[in-house]
Design goal:
The complex is a heterodimer of chains A (about 450) and B (about 110). In chain A, about 75% of the residues lie in helices and about 0% in strands. Chain A contains 24 helices and no strands. Chain A has helices at about 5-15, 20-40, 45-65, 70-90, 95-110, 110-130, 135-145, 165-185, 190-200, 205-210, 215-220, 225-240, 240-255, 260-275, 280-285, 285-290, 290-305, 310-325, 330-340, 345-360, 365-375, 375-390, 395-410, 415-425. In chain A, α5 (about 95-110) runs antiparallel to α19, α5 (about 95-110) packs parallel to α20 and α19 packs antiparallel against α20. With about 110 residues, chain B is mainly α. In chain B, α1 (about 15-20) packs across α2 (about 30-40). Helices cover about 55% and strands about 10% of the residues of chain B. The chains are: A mainly alpha (about 450), B mainly alpha (about 110).
């Protein structure tokens, strides 16, 4: 059959892609375009715009990965143009833009990323040692998470360098397990401690098993979706069909996916159903075997509900990328790229600026001023925390109280409470500086 | 740490959606495009460039493989893809990561 004019134009547009990519996927792309054209029965203006946008950004993305520097420069210019367009056109461009920037960054800064990550690991280890020396349960949890190689309190990552440095990774895992053990001993009545310890169970299943964390957690927080989720994950990890069924039954009681925990549980269970051959489902979950499609649909429904939380995710990316302006990292950029696909435009602006600042020092001042303006409460919190932590320059009670008042007046009560909690635990917090403040 | 380690591949949204689509079985490119549109209620309309760019990265990371399958009446140009065991593991990990992020956001914004 003779190709239509639209198909011939599309075939021509494939020359915008790098030759190697065109050779590899050109025919399949023409086929897919032809299929879509026939599905719509004609070339509509929307299809034309969709395909133009797709071609421009996909071609740019492929060029930034090409070995030729000139082409990469061209692609970078296109991305900078897109950075302008993003504020005009909106969210549909974000994924293409950031994906391309991250690809460029990875292709050019690998050595810098490696060095940065080594530095972060060393820094995390020093922080972990300090928290591990304390007795309270939450300090022990922080120590365990830092031994795990991550900076944030709840965004837990376990040693990912096991392949490269197995001895170091094993040692850290051992230290993390000891910290979890201590946290459980000292925080047995604290659901927050228990929940976080349970999340970290992969690092030390023996510790979690011996303490039966889930049973304790359920007794303290019955009918709690977050606990159901943990129960299902633990049961799936242990391949315990009976416990999995029990967890599923609990989730099935509530089909209200507007509740976040239920949506997450449905997603997880739906994903599990998708990953399990139908022949095995009956031995694991009879409810799914009777209607695996429904289980999967529930999971996807949960996923869509989850998207409603992406504004919160965007905020998270925003904070992550602004908290350590000097530490431009591959992981930060990847993280931002992930989240920007679904987050709000304000977060996109900040993370995009940060990415550009990393690529181009001239953009750094714009990034810094944006951060200063937007993240006043976070930077104040960090200043407070670092000064209390390092005592350099010495933090006076008056300084600390002034900052706390400012944080509260700025409308960030949560930041104020968090600062109070964190700074109270630091070695050089001045006596009496938190008089009159309590954390609810 | 090896940046190129397949276990540490960060999934972009198109890569994530493609892996989700392939959980149901082998599919060719256009079938993936249709399925992605369906499972996102039309919110994501992936074009061929985005699709095959993501497929290229998934192939490089060995999260999917191209199969020999060809439909009876299918055009010979159609190429079918299958999710690998590693792909399922990375998808699983990505899902867990999303759960942790949302959990964090939930607590932070409560």
């Amino acid at each position: 059959m003779k190709p239509s004019l639209a198909e011939r134009l599309y075939a021509l547009s494939l020359y915008l892609y790098p030759p190697s990519f065109r050779r590899e996927f050109g025919e399949a792309m023409k086929q897919a375009f032809g299929d879509r054209l026939r599905e719509r029965d004609r070339m509509s203006s929307r299809l034309f715009l969709d395909m133009t946008r797709d071609t421009v950004f996909a071609a740019a993305r492929e060029h930034v990965q090409a070995p030729d520097a000139l082409l990469r420069m061209f692609a970078l210019l296109m991305l900078m143009f897109a950075a302008t367009a993003i504020f005009v056109r909106g969210e549909s461009l974000r994924t293409a833009l950031i994906d391309g920037v991250v690809s460029y960054q990875e292709s050019t800064r690998r050595a810098a990323f490696d060095a940065y990550e080594r530095g972060v690991r060393d820094y995390n280890a020093s922080i972990a040692d300090r928290y591990a020396a304390r007795d309270d349960a939450r300090s022990q949890l922080i120590a365990a998470q830092f031994y795990g190689g991550d900076f944030d309190f709840l965004d837990i990552r376990f040693p990912s360098d096991a392949a490269a440095e197995p001895a170091i990774a094993a040692h850290r895992t051992q230290l993390a397990a000891a910290a979890i053990e201590k946290a459980l001993r000292n925080g047995w009545d604290d659901p927050v401690v228990l929940w976080n310890a349970a999340v970290m169970c992969p690092v030390s299943s023996a510790v979690c098993h011996s303490h039966d964390v889930l049973a304790r957690l359920e007794s303290l927080a019955p009918e709690n979706g977050a606990v159901w989720w943990l129960e299902f994950v633990a049961a799936a990890r242990a391949k315990d069909a009976g416990k999995m069924r029990a967890a599923i039954a609990k989730v099935a009681k509530s089909r209200d996916f507007t509740v976040y925990e239920n949506a997450m549980s449905a997603l997880w269970i739906g994903a599990y159903a998708s990953l399990t051959p139908p022949s095995q489902l009956s031995s694991v979950a009879p409810e799914m075997a009777s209607s695996p499609d429904e289980a999967v649909a529930s999971g996807l429904h949960g996923r869509l509900r989850y998207l409603e939380w992406t504004i919160a995710e965007g905020t998270y990316a925003f904070e992550r990328t602004c908290e350590s302006p000097a530490a431009a990292s591959r992981e930060d950029c990847r993280h931002a790229a992930d989240l920007l696909a679904t987050s709000d435009i304000f977060a996109a602006r900040l993370a995009g600026l940060r990415t550009l600042a990393h690529l181009d020092p001239a953009a750094a001042s714009a990034y810094r001023s944006a951060c200063t303006e937007a993240m006043w409460d976070r930077t104040t919190w960090w200043k407070l925390l670092f000064r209390a932590d390092r005592n350099d320059p010495p933090l006076t009670a008056r300084d600390a109280q002034r900052w706390m008042v400012a944080l509260r007046q700025h409308g960030t009560v949560f930041a104020a409470a968090e600062a109070l909690t964190a700074a109270s635990a630091t070695p050089h917090a001045p006596p009496g500086w938190n008089d009159g403040w309590t954390v609810q | 740490m090896s940046i190129a380690s397949s276990e540490e591949v960060t999934l972009t949204e198109p890569m994530h959606l493609i892996l989700l689509s392939l959980l149901d079985g082998d599919r060719h490119g256009y079938a993936i495009m249709q399925d992605v549109e369906s499972i996102t209620n039309g919110d994501v309309r992936m074009g061929p460039g985005t699709l095959y760019g993501a497929i290229k990265r998934l192939l490089q990371a060995k999260l999917i493989v191209e199969t020999e399958q060809r439909g009876g009446n299918d055009d010979e140009r159609r190429r079918y893809y299958r999710i690998t065991v590693l792909g399922r593991r990375v998808l699983d990990r990505h899902t867990a990561k999303l759960q942790r992020l949302v959990s964090f956001a939930r607590r932070r914004t409560a």
